[in-house]
Amino acid sequence: MEMVYQSSRNAAEQATASEAILKGLASDGGLFVPIRIPSLDVSLSELAGMDYKQVAYEVMKLFLADFSESELKACIEKAYDNKFDTKDIAPLKEAGGVYYLELFHGATIAFKDMALSILPHLLTTAARKNKVEEEIVILTATSGDTGKAALAGFADVPGTRIIVFYPKDGVSPIQEKQMVTQRGQNTSVVGIRGNFDDAQTGVKNIFNNKELAASIKKKGFLFSSANSINIGRLVPQIVYYVYAYTRLLKEGKLQEGEKLNVVVPTGNFGNILAAYYAKCAGLPFGKLICASNDNKVLYDFFTTGSYNRNREFVLTTSPSMDILISSNLERLIFKIAGDDAKKNAELMKKLAESGVYEITDEMKENLCDFAGGYATTEQTAKTICDLYKETGYIIDTHTAVAASVYQDYVSKTGDSSKTIIASTASPYKFTRSVMTAIDQKYNSMGDFELVDELSKISGTRVPRAIEEIRSAEVLHRTICDKDKMQEIVETILGM
User: Fold this and answer.
1) What is the pLDDT of residue 383?
2) Are 160 and 196 in contact (CB under 8 A)?
3) What is the DSSP letter of 484?
4) 3-state secondary structure at position 165
5) What is residue 94's predicted lDDT score, i.e. its pLDDT?
């Protein structure tokens, strides 16, 4: 059966995988969703005998069915190469009774590398397949990690340009330095006076501006997205959950078919949605535990069935999760509404107009795969400190949110199932927050002094991504108000 995608808001708008990747967002503002989630067609025991690239092909071929075997394998081969500093690509580390799935061994030391290493290759292949002649302009909003990973992925890729918007005062110093020092003739980075939700809304508004789309087409440009609203970002994330389960199976730490819980620190909801899609495809996952920080809009949703973004926006030590509009939740809403695009569109309309929507009791019952929890900034710091003292293992602030929520979940439920925690960023990306959580004496050190001290106490090598920015020249200095984003884009494109 052919794999088709449709808009989450209009069943009549359909696309192949390559078309959906090119468009990024459906024309009605909806997200592309699979009309059915395919089932794994290779046994878990067979997958356990494969390496990361082989598992990636077996998973992605199901979702990207209009890519030929040679096209897809070429994309995978180019993506998962020596830019990752470990042969495993996504190794598992056991600490404190759980398995940490380390997703930060790529070029920018955050989990976004797992998908953004391959997206440029999927996108340029999709352009060739669909005979697109325009130059593709990637527009991306970032809460800190997507931006650098997308910039690194698309830098100097022929036929593309990339423009990244980030909240000027809403990312860590290391995250900002990584972005503003990015080389590449086709790269632009813009800080906005606002938060991530402002940046994300601004990008969506640009995508939904039909007049602008027509005028840039005349100039030879085509907009697309590197955010997780793009199905080409989401599908590669499914891979590492399948890989993680089958590694534990291979090592004899799981029996085939044994349930495995998953904890994911979540802001925009894409990473945990990928785990949900993996479960729907046949992976024996138990509970999917959605971990929020002080911006606990998702925790409140899973607790009450009401999504309400009308609240104070809190700047935390886990800035990549400082989000009140979780775009990918729309894909889950579509699914629990019985794949009802009309119902989903009604709820998204309410969100746009009032900032609130409430799901039905029947839809709440369809959320049984999930559990929600949240950790305060103080709890996050304590978790980092406690884990280090007990095991010597150091995690970043986002991973610590998940670890704290997991501890709370176990104490409340008694669920002792084996568990993986998605470790979404290297502690080197958030050195000040991590090191001062371990000991306040580190607060007086400079950012790169902290990097060296972290290397010393953890016994790990400073990642190449950090070494590269120690003395790198700042190349991007543009800052704008949140309502001037379209003007900036038009200026960059010479319109």
Assistant:
1) 98
2) no
3) G
4) strand
5) 98
Question: What is the CATH code of the structural domain delimited by 92-109+232-469?
Answer: 3.40.50.1100
Q: How, if at all, do strands 356-358 and 98-102 pair?
A: unpaired
Residue appearing with tokens 């799935």: 101
Write the Ramachandran bin of 459: left for phi over 0, alpha for psi from -120 to 50, otherwise beta. left
Cα–Cα distance measured from residue 397 to residue 399, given in angstroms and rounded to the nearest whole number: 6
| Alpha helix (H) residue ranges in 12-84 | 17-23, 44-48, 52-63, 69-79
- Determine contact, residues 10/22, Cβ cutoff 8 Å: no
| Mean per-residue pLDDT, 26-31 | 93
pTM equals 0.92
Q: Mean pLDDT across the stretch 183-193?
A: 96
Cα torsion 368, 424, 427, 253 to 10°: value is: 70
17 torsion bin: left (phi>0), alpha (psi -120 to 50), beta (else):
alpha
Name the amino acid, one letter, at 371. A
Sequence-ordered list of residues with C-beta below 8 angstroms from that of 244, at least 6 positions apart, any chain: 90, 92, 99, 101, 420
The contacts of residue 461 (CB under 8 Å, 6+ apart) are 455
Give SS3 for 349.
helix
Tokens of 456: 């010393």
Contact between residue 430 and residue 397 where contact means Cβ atoms under 8 Å apart: yes
Coil, strand or helix at 286: strand
| Token digits of residue 114 | 């797992």
Q: Where residue 388 falls among pLDDT bands split at 50, 70, 90?
A: very high
Give the count of alpha carbons within 13 A of 64, CB side only: 34
What is the CA angle 482-22-177, rounded to 5?
45
Radius of gyration of the chain (CA): 21
User: What's at 136, amino acid-wise?
Assistant: I
